[in-house]
Amino acid sequence: MIVKYGGNAMKSLDLRRAVARELGTLRGAMPVVVVHGGGPVIERELAARGVASEFIGGLRVTTPEAMDVVEMALCQLNKQLSQDIGQAVGLMGRDDELLRAEVLDPQLGRVGRVTAVNAGLLRTLLGAGLTPVVGCVAVGEDGEALNVNADTVAGAVAGALGEGAVFLTDVDGVYRAYPDPDSRAAQLTRAEVEEGVAAGWIAGGMIPKVRAALDALGRGAPFAIIASGMTAGVLAQAARGEAGTRIVP
Fold it and tell me: What is the pTM of this model?
């Protein structure tokens, strides 16, 4: 299973380590690939260097100066997460061209869209009993680094491996009548998701989350789950279909 991990679950060292323990437990049941972002860490490092942050459509405008800081911050976090998880190998897009990408939009600077995943490298590590931990920096067509959204990287990796993905976030799943807990949808089809967006019961910050899930399906993943990374035991529960919202073709 591919697990996208980041955001609020990274702000607390205790919570980060709790999630790492859960990843280790999940690995006992199935091979796991972890894909991580690092928004809070990147923000902190940019601010410390006086580099301003600007967002367009939820994506960070990444100048060459900012790209250097993003890559440095994600590399450091990548190694910390790998150590927390144990029996893990931290990887960035430059490693054996794990992630290749093209520039998404010139207005965004060094922001990329994944075009290829070195699935063979990931399968080799999984076959050796190791957990690949993937940081979201890819290699661009010019051979230089590109900043890539972690949700889209997780979708691309899931598609390349033909496996399901779990997107850990700060809500328990997709609600038909948010925040009523009884309205959480255990499973939705692609058509139901599109209907929910059109009807307005999927709205706000949930829209990019379901779009990432649909992107994973479009790339070949058999399913995608949106679940809370703030809840203990959620990964094992999601794998059993007992937590989150499973989105299927």
Answer: 0.92
